[in-house]
Write a structure and sequence with these properties.
Layout: H1 2-8, H2 12-35, H3 37-72, H4 84-105, H5 112-116, H6 122-153
């Protein structure tokens, strides 16, 4: 066992966690494919194609101005700590949540209120609040990193 762990290169806890996650993913895959494997396969292929042909170019298009601004301001002392990922991360998380919950946020799901007896009205406000919190936490993390960088310099 020691030889396996040594050749793996990480701690035994990391190896066990990785094996457990593979086992969980395998179990989920078996359960998912037990019902309608062709529909699941078609959904996965469609999602991959939609991501590669639609979403990836949109990511690149949205990220281009951000990286251009970051390159121009690289010499500024205020920007000693890279800020680009502090904008990217909350934007990506917010975008993924918007993509997942778009039918509820924009009230496109007609049967939701009938099925659950709940209103879909709070989804937009909650998504906006979550987006604001994500950007606020990211800004606070950037401020903390910037303060630490200034202390190290001065």
């Amino acid at each position: 066992m020691r030889r396996l762990v040594r050749s793996y290169g990480a701690s035994p806890a990391h190896l066990l966690t990785l094996l457990a996650s593979f086992a969980l993913a395998g179990y989920a895959g078996v359960r998912l494919l037990a019902g309608a494997p062709w529909q699941v396969a078609a959904w996965l292929v469609g999602a991959a194609v939609a991501h590669d042909l639609v979403l990836a170019p949109l990511y690149a298009l949205a990220d281009a101005p951000l990286t251009a601004v970051a390159r121009r301001r690289r010499g500024n002392a205020l920007h000693a700590v890279p800020w680009v990922n502090h904008v990217r991360f909350p934007a990506v998380v917010s975008g993924v949540l918007l993509l997942l919950f778009a039918p509820s946020i924009f009230r496109w799901s007609e049967g939701y209120e009938r099925t659950t007896a709940l209103s879909s009205a709070p989804y937009l406000g909650r998504w906006l609040l979550l987006t604001a919190v994500l950007f606020a936490v990211s800004a606070a993390a950037y401020a903390i990193r910037l303060r630490r960088a200034r202390r190290r310099r001065g």
